[in-house]
Amino acid sequence: MRIMGIDPGTATTGFGLLEHEGSRLHLLEYGVIRTEPGVPDAARLLQIHREVKALLENHRPDAIAV
């Protein structure tokens, strides 16, 4: 099972992706999505949307926790 965790925020959104196999967990990827201060909120949300969408398309998680 592939699991994605998201720590939401407008300035910094954290994420992590794990693979659960039997009794083992494997870290696949983790990081942050940073948006620029002073940029309109709509543009910041669009950036976060695009980057999270790319992560979802690349890793195809079975479950997501926010």
Describe what is shown at a glance.
The chain contains one helix and four strands; from the N terminus they run βββαβ.
Can you put this structure into words, describing what you see?
This protein is of the alpha+beta class and 66 residues long. It has a single domain (2-65), classed as 2-Layer Sandwich (Nucleotidyltransferase, domain 5). 29% of the residues lie in helices and 45% in strands. The chain is built from one helix and four strands; from the N terminus they run βββαβ. It has one helix at residues 41-59, and strands at 2-7, 12-21, 24-34, 63-65. It has a four-stranded mixed beta sheet with strand order 3-2-1-4, with helices on one face. Strand 1 (2-7) and strand 2 (12-21) form a beta hairpin. The longest helix is centred in the C-terminal third of the chain and has 19 residues, at 41-59. It starts with a strand and ends with a strand.
Keywords:
66 residues; alpha+beta; Nucleotidyltransferase, domain 5; 1 helix
- End-to-end distance: 17 Å
Number of strands: 4
Helix content: 25-40%
**Which spans have pLDDT < 50 for at least 5 consecutive residues?**
none
Q: What do the pLDDT scores average to?
A: 97
SSE layout:
Layout: E1 2-7, E2 12-21, E3 24-34, H1 41-59, E4 63-65
Parallel strand pairs: 1-4
Antiparallel strand pairs: 1-2, 2-3
